[in-house]
What we know:
Layout: E1 2-5, H1 12-19, E2 23-26, H2 32-38, E3 44-47, H3 55-58, E4 66-69, H4 79-84, E5 88-91, H5 97-113, H6 115-123, E6 141-145, H7 149-160, E7 164-168, H8 174-177, E8 183-184, H9 188-194, E9 197-200, H10 214-219, E10 224-228, H11 237-246, E11 249-254, E12 273-275, H12 284-302, H13 318-341, E13 346-355, H14 362-374, H15 387-393, E14 397-403, E15 411-419, E16 422-431, E17 435-441, E18 444-449, E19 453-460, H16 465-475, E20 480-487, E21 493-500, H17 506-513, E22 518-525
Parallel strand pairs: 1-2, 1-3, 3-4, 4-5, 6-7, 6-9, 7-8, 9-10, 10-11, 11-12, 13-14
Antiparallel strand pairs: 13-15, 15-16, 16-17, 17-18, 19-21, 19-22, 20-21
Helix pairs in contact: 1-12, 5-7, 13-14, 14-15
Amino acid sequence: MLVLIADELPDICIDILKKAGLEVLKKPGIKADELKTIINTCDGIILRSGTKITAALLENVTRLKAICRAGVGVDNVDVSAATKRGIVVMNTPEGNITSTAEQSVALLFALSRFIPQACASVKAGKWERKLFTGIQVAGKTIGIIGLGRVGRQVAKRALGLEMKVIGYDPFVSPDITSQYGIHIAKNLNEVFTQSDYITVHVPFNNETKNLITKKEFAIMKKGVRIINCARGGIISEEDLYNAVKTGQVAGAALDVFDVEPPAGNKLLELDQVITTPHLGASTEEAQYAVALEAAEQMADALTGKGYRNAVNLPPYNPEEYAGLKPYITLAEKMGSMLMQIAHGGFQAVDITYTGELCKKNMRLVTDSLIVGLLKPALENGVNIVSAPLLLSERGIKINVTTSSCGSDFTSLISAKITTSKGETAISGTVFGKNEPRLVAINSYGVEAILDKGMLVLFGKDKPGLIGDIGSLLGRKKINIAHMTFGRKEVGGNAITILNIDSPVSQDCLNEINQLDHIEEVYQINL
Length: 526
């Protein structure tokens, strides 16, 4: 088997691959035209960020089995096209954790002591000691948004600097964070209002895009300092610019931007903003570690030892997967729905299988439900390979059982998540031609289609309730495709679930919430 090394990597990578019995072709900086001519002779490709693997390159590939990116991001690989071709795409998320954490701390000091500005001043022949009077970090409060592997390492270093550490991450168990001496905030507002420094360590996705805007800056301490070594787009650059200009934010240290390089970015005009060119993982040690990890993962993948850090779905037995596909789809939708209606920090998940499904490979279904739970908080890399590990790393407990109890359904999946606020449970099955259906939610019997946009309303069973909801949505030109209603007793608590053809605005949700007998309303996106 042949492995192409398409970017510059240390020679230890070649040694590891050859020791595993693999042939190696080293062509750092290979051009797209040459890559196109040789890609179908390769079983594996290891690359950094310089080489791009596009859908066009993969169009007629039949031999390639695995691609490994020596680094975290896989933006230069068309993962969707690779998946369609049965090619596993891997990355190496472990190797740069320390370097990224250290970069955050380095920027914290640079921001506090005006180090870049003072250096430029001295080199310009000046000696402006009074102009660059800084602040000490000891005794200050640092707020860490995102307590994954990097966030926890930043916390560890901040505590060593005698800082107070407050953090927020609903997807990390207190059992994990307690080991680091982190005070867990109840919500983001607690972090915003109490912190002297705020640093973000979350992935960039729909949930975290513009996580910090003018609304969040407005409630922060005046003179707060902002650090971002995660991803551009998490903090609104325009709102950050305005917050610095008004003095609400004393300074910002940015390693990442919405657009890189940030040519013409207004933030570069501000003396209070210091920047670096995406150097979080740029240390000799980190570059060596991710390259080593990439070679080891490729060797394991091609010699049948399994895949590590796969960011897409690896191939399974086709017949087994085809038979389980309806339940895999159902499980992921259930997981996603659970996280959208639950309150509080995620602590545990219980899954119960009943019926014929118990005789099959439930691992695939379980992992798919975990994918649905984690996707809102993690990057696109979460899949049925990585989901169990990611859940375990966050200290979240999972309990899977089978039940011999009778059921109205041939197969039934029941899932319950426990959070700091309580428990939320749903049950689902597959109807007819592989149609995923929700059949229970918090003990209410329902029959709801799990498809695209949904509204879930909790309230009281009172005359006119359904008519009021329908009239309101009708005025808003929102079509109801399906409706189901569940209650436990006449006139008691009830649930209404609607499938809608278009999204509902926040103003419309507020109006629904104000209807008589409505207690809670959730918009679900699946």
